[in-house]
Design goal:
The protein is globular and about 60 Å long. The protein has two domains: 214 residues, Ribosomal Protein S5, domain 2; 171 residues, GHMP kinase, C-terminal domain (Alpha-Beta Plaits, 2-Layer Sandwich). The chain contains eleven helices and twelve strands. Helices cover 37% and strands 20% of the residues. The strands form two sheets. Strands 1, 2, 3, 4, 5, 6, 7 and 12 form an eight-stranded mixed sheet that branches. It is α+β, with helices and mostly antiparallel strands.
Length: 411
């Protein structure tokens, strides 16, 4: 079995330093003063600070991250925000501005996966992961506010984790690098929450910058920020939230990851990243048909990411539509992670004028994206809404997104 290059051709330069991104200004979509005031009402004191971390849209590169491949996500303007105050004991008191879970209390000195419930497993998972890495994390009071749709494939859970680890890194003087925070939040997600995800989501949330997608090599975390200015190209990127909820903590997602890992073992490679397009013929003779199709998706999706980056560099967003379409077909037919609602959203958007569309996220529900001429955006929106109504599906939520800034302190 031959192997592909560990990195794409040198025409795509890489770098690891993101500290310059942190100095960039942004206008928060939510009022940090409001969450600080609410925190004081609940906990009787002002927070030590307020931190924000965004959700993300993955432009292309699905189920390639845990196969050590390439992805191209960007941060969106919907985010999780946490107001946090360090306590003198080991008690964590947590409350959110949404849902009906109420105030939850935990002892940070004896955290267990079984004892965490609801959204609190994400901040508790981060605390647990930091402790596993030898960091002392005291008790905290924490108030969460988020407008990232949950279960929509926009990384609502990672937004929470990235906001929390940004806060704790500063408040405990842990001295974590961005890469350290990515690895800690992945450990929280994998080993505490129980979701076998890769590093894409937290990388986008922690490393993004406005106006750019994050081109990430998931093997060594090398990144390049790729300009993605749909507005300048006369385009709009629509997110179509199908309202079909999903969870990564079990089921089909875990089965796909296991299948990929077993395939890599059979093919004698460290990860499916090391299988090239030229190897697919040999692989088809070594794997059962279903497993081969899973492999074919990962291999061709990696290639589509590289092609997308090259087109964005040379021709702009208007050239990538066919690659988005091909990505969806691969996820639908080879990886089998789409669903009727996602397929309807994608097919309808294309028919109504989108130049390319695909499901985004881990699959089995969630959202699709449609790259659409600005003058056709309302037409696409209306067509999808009507198609869902005719099919008897729940009304989708459709909104436009632009690449935004990554995690940062707001107050």
């Amino acid at each position: 079995m031959t192997t592909v290059q560990s990195r794409p051709a040198t025409r795509i330069p890489w770098f690891h330093d993101f500290e310059q991104r942190r100095s960039q200004a942004m206008n928060p979509s939510l009022d940090s003063g409001g969450i600080a005031a609410r925190f004081e009402e609940v906990f009787g004191a002002r927070p030590d600070g307020v931190w924000r971390a965004p959700g993300r849209v993955n432009l292309i590169g699905e189920h390639t991250d845990y196969n050590e491949g390439f992805v191209l996500p960007f941060a969106i303007d919907r985010a999780a925000r946490v107001a946090v105050r360090v306590r003198r004991d080991s008690t964590a008191r947590m409350l959110s501005t949404f849902g009906n879970q109420g105030l939850t209390t935990a002892d940070t000195g004896s955290l267990s996966r079984a004892g965490a419930r609801g959204w609190t497993k994400y901040p508790l998972g981060v605390i647990w992961a930091l402790q596993q890495d030898g960091h002392r994390v005291p008790g905290v009071d924490l108030l969460l506010d988020s407008d990232v749709p949950r279960g929509a494939g926009l990384s609502s859970s990672h937004a929470i984790e990235c906001a929390v680890i940004s806060a704790l890194n500063e408040l405990t003087a842990a001295g974590l690098s961005v890469q350290d925070m990515v690895q800690a939040t992945q450990r929280a997600e994998n080993d505490f929450v129980g979701a076998p995800t890769g590093i894409m989501d937290q990388s986008a949330s922690l490393r993004a910058t406005a106006g750019h997608a994050v081109f990430l090599d998931c093997r060594d975390q090398a990144v390049r920020l790729v300009p993605f200015d749909a507005d300048a190209a006369g385009l709009v990127l629509l997110v179509i939230d199908t309202k079909v909820s999903h969870s990564h903590a079990g089921g089909g997602y875990a089965a796909r990851r296991e299948s990929c890992e077993l395939a890599a073992e059979v093919l004698g490679v460290p990860a499916l990243r090391d299988v090239g397009l030229e190897d697919l013929g040999e692989a088809s003779g070594l794997l059962d048909l279903e497993t081969f199709r899973r492999v074919r998706h990962v291999v061709t999706e990696n290639d589509r990411v590289l092609q997308t980056v090259e087109l964005l560099d040379t021709m702009g967003p208007g050239a990538i539509g066919p690659l988005l379409d091909a990505s969806h077909a691969s996820m639908r037919d080879d990886f089998e992670i789409s669903c009727a609602e996602l397929d309807l959203a994608v097919d309808t958007a294309r028919s109504a004028g989108a130049i390319g569309a695909r499901m985004t996220g881990g699959g089995f529900g969630g959202s699709a994206i449609a790259l659409t001429p600005a003058g056709s955006a309302q037409q696409v929106r209306y067509a999808v809404e009507q198609a869902f109504a005719r099919a008897g599906y729940a009304a989708p939520e459709i909104f436009s997104v632009r690449p935004g800034a990554g995690a940062m302190r707001l107050a």
